[in-house]
From TrEMBL:
Chain residues that bind GTP: R23, R70, T107, K169, R279, I280, R281
GO molecular function: GTP 3',8'-cyclase activity
Organism field: Granulicella cerasi
Domain (Radical SAM core) ranges: 14-240
Quaternary structure and partners: Monomer and homodimer.
Function according to Swiss-Prot or TrEMBL: Catalyzes the cyclization of GTP to (8S)-3',8-cyclo-7,8-dihydroguanosine 5'-triphosphate.
Main EC class the enzyme belongs to: lyase
Annotated metabolic or biological route of this protein: Cofactor biosynthesis; molybdopterin biosynthesis
Protein known as: GTP 3',8-cyclase
Keywords tagged on the record: 4Fe-4S, GTP-binding, Iron, Iron-sulfur, Lyase, Metal-binding, Molybdenum cofactor biosynthesis, Nucleotide-binding, S-adenosyl-L-methionine
Residues the record lists as binding S-adenosyl-L-methionine: Y36, G74, S131, M203
A Pfam family annotated for this UniProt entry: Radical_SAM
Annotated residues for binding of [4Fe-4S] cluster 2: C274, C277, C291
Residues binding [4Fe-4S] cluster 1, per UniProt: C30, C34, C37
Length: 347
């Protein structure tokens, strides 16, 4: 019988890339309506599965060599039972070394984080990323369309630090004309709050919008590129590049010359990093996606609920991953957005 502790041939795609990172969405609900993500008041499909089924799927991937799991949404902290799921996943051993624990991370908007931080840490969560797209409360409210959010997110970050989370990452999606004036403020925020700020280039993952004049639609002009971000940072402080922690790392890392905190720039548009991609995704309704920009969903949960045994599921997963896309094609002729918005894919 294969268990999560049984050494197996690591999961690899057809290009030989080792697949070690799983991003698991546990809900597509969100209490924010960020302008670059949600079209308006609604949009959630409320496509959630049982925590038992999520755990079974995670076990499959851990038994195939996955060692990093990131819980996402929507807003994952809205999902009842999340800490229990994290606690169960934290008990699984890595397939290649039974003495090591899985690397468990979570991405949240931070609104509900303060009262939950200690429980998340106690459940076995190792790392935390907070999505925060402005450091000025009025800009934050305009982007999120939530009036009381900024202070709650800031309180959540500080509560997480008090709970023992170190090197918390704060992700900011930059969108020209909406929050590109926040770059300098985020540099100060990184230094004063002792967090790692990571700027992310805006990608074409917003929900469909029937208004052809909408300023929130992706176009090349909306992207604030890696080089522009770095140039603006260097006008404030001397920054130095850092070596990547691993080949599949998404962020180009920089440190202030006085060693006060770190900045990362995730540049999938201007500097794609597909060549070393180690990630696959499970949507909240149990669809396996081999790339953020996949045109095809693979219904793993459906197969399991219809009676597929674990051994057959592993064979099927390997066949799907074998066909993982070589790269995305943003900005190229014929590029097609994925059929799902980011909130339905999982951050």
């Amino acid at each position: 019988m294969v268990t999560p502790d049984t050494p197996l041939t690591p999961l690899r795609d057809g290009l030989g890339r080792a697949i070690t990172d799983l991003r698991l969405s546990v809900t597509d609900r969100c209490n924010y309506r960020c302008v670059y993500c949600r079209t308006g008041e609604s949009g959630a499909l409320y496509s959630e599965l049982s925590m038992e089924l999520y755990l079974r799927m995670v076990r499959l991937f851990v038994s195939m060599g996955v060692e990093k799991i990131r819980f996402t949404g929507g807003e994952p902290l809205m999902r009842r039972g999340l800490t229990d799921l994290i606690a169960e996943v934290s008990k699984l051993r890595m397939a290649r070394d039974p003495e090591e624990r899985l690397d468990l991370a979570l991405t949240t908007n931070g609104h509900m984080l303060a009262p939950m931080a200690k429980d998340l840490r106690a459940a076995g969560l190792n790392r935390l990323t907070v999505s925060m797209d402005a450091v000025e409360p009025d800009v934050f409210a305009r982007i999120t369309r939530v009036q009381d959010g900024f202070q709650k997110v800031r309180d959540g970050i500080r509560a997480a630090q008090d709970a023992g989370f170190e090197r918390i990452k704060v992700n900011c999606v930059l969108m020209r004309g909406f929050n590109d004036d926040q770059i300098e403020g985020f540099a100060e925020f990184a230094r004063t709050e002792d967090v790692i700020v990571r700027f992310i280039e805006f990608m074409p993952l917003e929900e469909a919008d029937d208004n052809p004049e909408s300023s929130r639609k992706w176009s090349p002009d909306t992207v604030v590129t890696h080089d522009e971000i770095l140039a603006r940072l260097e006008k404030l402080y001397s920054v130095q590049p850092l070596a990547p922690n691993h080949l599949s790392e998404t962020a180009r890392r920089y440190i202030f010359a006085d060693n006060r905190s770190e900045i990362g720039i995730i540049a999938p548009v201007s500097r794609p990093f597909c060549g070393h991609c180690s990630r696959i995704r499970l949507t909240s309704d149990g669809k396996l996606r081999t790339c953020l920009f996949s045109q095809i969903d693979h219904d793993l949960a459906g197969k399991l609920m219809r009676g597929m045994e674990d051994e057959a599921a592993r064979v099927w997963i390997r066949e799907v991953v074998e066909k993982k896309e070589a790269r995305h094609h943003i900005g190229e002729a014929g590029f097609l957005k994925p059929g799902r918005a980011m909130v339905h894919i999982g951050g």
